[in-house]
Design a protein that fits this description.
The chain is mainly alpha-helical. The protein folds into two domains: about 90 residues, no CATH class; about 100 residues, no CATH class. It is about 55% helix and about 10% strand. The protein has a three-stranded antiparallel beta sheet. A two-stranded antiparallel ribbon has the order 1-2. Helix 2 packs across helix 3 and helix 2 crosses helix 4. The longest helix has about 35 residues. It is elongated and about 110 Å long.
C-alpha cells in the first residue's frame, strides 16, 4: 500500500467512524481466533485456549483503545510533517511562492465576485413579497444610441398602459438619480429614487417614515402622481436624526 493510499484511508476514516470501528472489531477478533486455534493445537482445552488468548491480548476494548490512540497520533504526526515539508518547499522557492499566492488570491477574489453577482441576480430572490410576479416594462429602439437602445417611457405611454392594463394588479413608475443632501456638517451626494405610489404597492412596501401620496389624483389635468423623493435611510439617521417632522415623504 502506497503512502498516498494510506493517507487517503486515514482521512476518509475521520468521517466514517462506524465503519472504522466495525473493521477494527473484525481485525481484533481475527487475531484472537488465530491465537485460540494456536492454543488448541498446543493441547489446551477450548475454555483454557480462549482464556489464554484474552490474557495475551489484554482484552478487546483495551486493544481497540490502544489502536485508536496510535491511529490518532499517526494522523497528527503525518499532518504536522506534511505541513513542515510544505513550508520548507515554499521557502526554497520564494518567487514561485509569491506568484502562487497572488494567483490564489486573485482566483479567490474573482470567484467571490462572480458568486456575489450570480447569487444576487439569479439565485437569491428579490426582498419583496412574491418577487416572481414582478415585471419591468420598457421600450427599445434600434436607432437610439444609448445603452442597449433603451428608451424612457413617456407620459402618453404610461397613460396607455394604465388605461389598457388587463394583466397587472399594480403599476408604477420610477426614476433613479443622485441628489445633494444638506443639513449636516457637509453636503454630500446620495443615490436617490423617485417612485410613484403604484410602485410601492407593487413591491408591497411602505415608507419607513412620512407618508405616500396617492397616484393619478394629484393633478386632474396631468393625472400623474407627484414623484416621491426617498432620502437615504443612513442620511436620515446621520443628518436628520430620524426626525419625523423633517418633511413628508
Amino acid at each position: 500500500m502506497s503512502w498516498m493510499t494510506e493517507r487517503w484511508r486515514r482521512i476518509r476514516s475521520i468521517g466514517r467512524r462506524h465503519e472504522m470501528e466495525s473493521g477494527l472489531d473484525e481485525e481484533i477478533r481475527f487475531h484472537i481466533d488465530q491465537q485460540i486455534e494456536k492454543n488448541l493445537r498446543a493441547g489446551m482445552s477450548l475454555d483454557e485456549a480462549r482464556r489464554q488468548a484474552s490474557v495475551k491480548f489484554g482484552g478487546m476494548e483495551r486493544v481497540k483503545e490502544s489502536t485508536r490512540d496510535e491511529f490518532r497520533s499517526a494522523l497528527v504526526e503525518d499532518s504536522v510533517r506534511d505541513f513542515r515539508y510544505g513550508i520548507r518547499a515554499l521557502r526554497r522557492a520564494p518567487g514561485f511562492t509569491i506568484i502562487s499566492s497572488l494567483m490564489l488570491a486573485l482566483g479567490i477574489g474573482a470567484t467571490t465576485a462572480v458568486f456575489s453577482v450570480v447569487n444576487g441576480v439569479l439565485v437569491k430572490p428579490l426582498p419583496y413579497p412574491r418577487p416572481e410576479e414582478l415585471v419591468s416594462l420598457g421600450h427599445t429602439a434600434q436607432d437610439v444610441r444609448n445603452a442597449g437602445g433603451d428608451m424612457s417611457m413617456s407620459a402618453a405611454q404610461l397613460f396607455t398602459y394604465r388605461d389598457e392594463n388587463r394583466s397587472f394588479q399594480q403599476m408604477g413608475v420610477w426614476s433613479a438619480g443622485t441628489e445633494s443632501a444638506t443639513g449636516g456638517t457637509e453636503p454630500e451626494e446620495i443615490q436617490s429614487l423617485y417612485v410613484s405610489y403604484g410602485t410601492l404597492r407593487a413591491l408591497g412596501e411602505q415608507p419607513l417614515m412620512g407618508r405616500s401620496k396617492q397616484p393619478w389624483t394629484s393633478s386632474p389635468d396631468l393625472k400623474v402622481g407627484i414623484g416621491i423623493a426617498r432620502t437615504h435611510h443612513e442620511v436620515d439617521e446621520r443628518a436628520l436624526a430620524l426626525d419625523p417632522f423633517a418633511g413628508p415623504a
